[in-house]
Design brief:
The protein is of the alpha+beta class. Helices cover 24% and strands 26% of the residues. Helix 2 runs antiparallel to helix 3. The longest helix is centred in the N-terminal third of the chain and has 18 residues. The chain is globular, with a radius of gyration of 15 Å.
């Protein structure tokens, strides 16, 4: 609904049934939601945000890609500090990416960001994949 309100296109990839992670569901939902809210906030009207999941034999990677135009100057790791706000839009508290970072860590994962200068960025949640047959 938020993508529609902001006149954004959201694409979501399908995930194979056998791709699972052992994680706190509410915390993981919060991680993904905070990354999506960040993407919605900084992607210009009529832009595109994508949510993709891919897997290797040992990892599950959740990508949120936006069209924000690229990251502002500074170290990308600093984006995950509480109250960090570098863009012109200072609405919000600057906690979304910090919450996402901590939520990924609680679930034995990490978050990485790749800057696509002039285009946008990709935030990736990297989690351990649950082995097949594991409960």
């Amino acid at each position: 609904m938020e993508a529609n309100v902001r006149h954004l296109q959201l694409s979501v990839s399908t995930v194979a049934n056998n791709v699972t992670v052992h994680a706190d569901r509410q915390v993981l939902e919060s991680v993904v939601w905070n990354l999506l809210q960040n993407a919605f906030k900084f992607t210009p009207r009529s832009g595109h945000v994508s949510l993709r999941t891919r897997a290797t034999t040992t990892r599950v990677l959740i990508d949120v890609e936006d069209r924000c135009g690229g990251l502002p100057p500074g170290k990308a790791e600093e984006l995950f500090r509480p109250f960090e706000q570098r863009a012109h839009d200072r609405s919000g508290l600057g906690l979304g990416l910090a919450i996402a970072y901590r939520g990924a860590r609680v679930n034995d994962g990490e978050i990485h960001v790749v800057n696509l200068p002039g285009t946008g960025c990709v935030f990736t949640v990297d989690l351990p994949r649950q082995p097949r047959g594991a409960e």
